[in-house]
Specification:
The protein is built from 11 helices and 11 strands. It is of the alpha/beta class. The chain folds into 2 domains: 100 residues, no CATH class; 202 residues, von Willebrand factor, type A domain (Rossmann fold, 3-Layer(aba) Sandwich). A 6-stranded mixed sheet has the order 5-4-3-6-7-10, with helices on both faces. Strands 1-2-11 form a 3-stranded antiparallel sheet. Helix 1 runs antiparallel to helix 3, helix 3 runs antiparallel to helix 11 and helix 4 packs parallel to helix 10. The longest helix is centred in the middle third of the chain and has 27 residues. The two termini are 51 Å apart.
Length: 343
């Protein structure tokens, strides 16, 4: 924990001072009580000098301490959203995504998971969408209009099924899309400043922070098509310093049924977690193995709450003020309830 105004923590010295004044007052009250000649009144006073007598005072002192800490503007370490973040969603839409080992289907579960991600993601980060089967396609360029991304996700499954799974090409396409978007953003920023690009040394001093770019990659199968092998695509992401978070969707027993000349054939479509885990490790991302819709949704919810954020501080003054108010109310209630009554 850190503080916006740490020197104001010196106000905590008030707490022991108030406690000392209270103890001095208690001693004076005791000496005054001894002077009474009425034994019955003295017994009444002594009977109420139990531990309960000090509870309201202790609560009041705790409230005072909380107020002193609150004025120092306490801050807790947390993850804060940044407008320099970009997430490229990459979704497998091959025919195997219609397997129903993940209910209701793998594709429907993936669509719902992406909606969950968008609901948890900060509104200011840019989100792009690439869908792939035998080849990758850009469904939505990186944008802060998350409703546009959601519309593209809802449209998945309305097109004819595509054969093949080109994992390496999809990774390369995601890397290229991110780099293009960053380049366009840099050009727009220079144009807005109304000047030509400055030398690299000067530019790096003016804009040292590199945008946060992450690829969130979901597939339910192993590579069957494409030019690049999966780890070749991962190498391109690594060279661009883009971590890839991978999710293997499905169970080893997943199957789809296809018609071949009037004959139906059941085809096994197990995921390839080993390859996706290797991609995540190679690029510095993280691997998730989702064998159910709930596990997939939980993974996307977690990633939506963490991707696009950087370590930072958030002020928690309100928490200490609320605690002080609650302690003061409790002290007042107990003081009235347990206060001694004169006969």
């Amino acid at each position: 924990m850190s503080f916006g105004h740490p020197f104001l923590l010196l106000t905590l010295a008030i707490v022991p001072i108030v406690a000392a004044l209270y103890l001095i007052g208690e001693r004076r009250r005791a000496r005054y009580a001894v002077r009474f000649t009425n034994v019955d009144v003295l017994a009444t006073v002594v009977s109420h000098r139990s531990w309960r007598r000090y509870v309201p005072t202790a609560l009041f002192l705790a409230a005072l301490a909380a107020l002193c800490i609150g004025v120092a503007r306490p801050q807790a370490k947390t993850l804060v959203a940044t407008d320099r973040a970009m997430v490229i969603l990459v979704l497998d839409q091959s025919g195997s995504m219609f397997a129903n080992d993940v209910r209701p289907t793998r594709l429907a579960a993936a669509q719902q998971a992406v909606r969950t991600f968008l609901a948890h993601a900060p509104g200011r980060i840019r989100v792009g969408l690439i869908v792939f089967a035998g080849e990758p396609q850009v469904a939505t360029p990186p944008t802060t209009d998350h409703d546009l991304v959601r519309t593209s996700v809802d449209a998945l499954g309305t097109f004819p099924e595509s054969p093949g799974t080109a994992i390496g090409d999809a990774l390369a396409a995601a890397t290229q899309l991110a780099q293009q978007s960053l380049a366009e953003g840099s050009s727009s920023a220079e144009s807005a400043k109304g000047g030509a690009a400055k030398p690299s040394g000067s530019a790096s001093r003016q804009n040292p922070a590199r945008p946060l770019v992450t690829v969130l990659f979901l597939s339910d199968g192993s590579q069957t098509r494409g030019i690049l092998q999966p780890l070749d695509g991962a190498a391109r992401a690594k060279a661009a310093k883009i971590p890839v978070y991978t999710i293997a969707l499905g169970t080893p027993n997943g199957t789809i049924t296809r018609d071949f000349g009037g004959f139906q054939r059941t085809i096994p479509v197990p995921p390839d977690p080993q390859t996706l885990a290797a991609i995540a490790e190679e690029t510095g991302g993280k691997f998730y193995n989702a064998r159910s819709a709930d596990a997939l949704r939980a993974a996307y919810a977690h990633l939506g709450s963490t991707l696009g954020r950087v370590p930072g501080h958030t002020e928690i003054t309100y928490a200490f003020l609320a605690a002080a108010a609650a302690l003061l109310v409790a002290a007042g209630v107990l003081a009235m309830w347990w206060s001694p009554r004169l006969p």
